[in-house]
Design a protein that fits this description.
Length: 205
């Protein structure tokens, strides 16, 4: 089949165009919808207590420019009672890699103090973010089928942060060890507040 080329210079971009033909994509199998956005302002916690239900199989949380009041880690926990308690048992893994700005040091390591074995603490998502004005944390967390009443609830996360003149890349994975539905998620720093930053929640089918 011959390929017809359209020259951009010949198109009137203020006009409306209609294209005809056969669409070879019959269905869209992946779609995500933004459900909520929380913005921190010296906030002790950021809690998502609605819209986590059986509507979506996967929930994604996106962290954008999270800045702490203290040199600490961002963590999360799940609730099975709509946000009254955040103390669900978690079993998890954690490792990170880093590279210094002057290229004088690099490494990758598993951090045993950052994982859990049926613990009920907030699961850490990064090593530690500095309080320097230009230091921040970004990343994503995925929680799979939180409304299941048959299986444990798996999660995976990856974050990138600026820490002590280095790029640090952290990987977290594990599961909520419960067959009860997870219907709320809370984020907070290990200590201190979230000075600024945004967390977005998406539903994915």
């Amino acid at each position: 089949m011959a390929l017809s080329k359209i020259q951009p210079a010949s198109m009137d971009l203020t006009a409306n165009y209609a294209f005809t033909g056969t669409n070879s994509v019959s269905t869209i199998e992946y779609a995500e919808k933004k459900l909520a956005t929380l913005t921190a302002s010296s906030s002790s916690t950021l809690s998502f207590t609605t819209n986590i239900d059986s509507t979506y199989n996967i929930y994604k949380f996106r962290f954008i420019n999270m800045h702490p009041s203290a040199y600490e880690e961002l963590g999360f926990q799940g609730s099975t009672d709509g946000g009254s308690n955040y103390n669900t048992q978690i079993t998890s893994t954690f490792f990170q890699d880093y590279n210094l700005e002057d290229n004088s040091g690099q490494g990758i390591s598993y951090l045993t103090g950052y994982d859990q074995a049926n613990g009920t603490n907030f699961q850490r998502l990064n090593y530690s973010t500095y309080t320097d004005n230009d230091s921040n944390l970004c990343g994503e967390l995925f929680i799979f089928d939180p409304s299941s009443t048959t299986f444990v609830k798996h999660f995976t996360a990856r974050t990138s942060e600026h820490i002590n003149n280095a790029a640090a890349d952290a990987y977290t994975a594990g599961y909520f060890n419960t067959t009860s539905a997870i219907n709320a998620i809370q984020f907070k720093m290990e200590s201190g507040n979230i000075d600024s930053g945004t967390i977005e929640m998406y539903g994915i089918n």
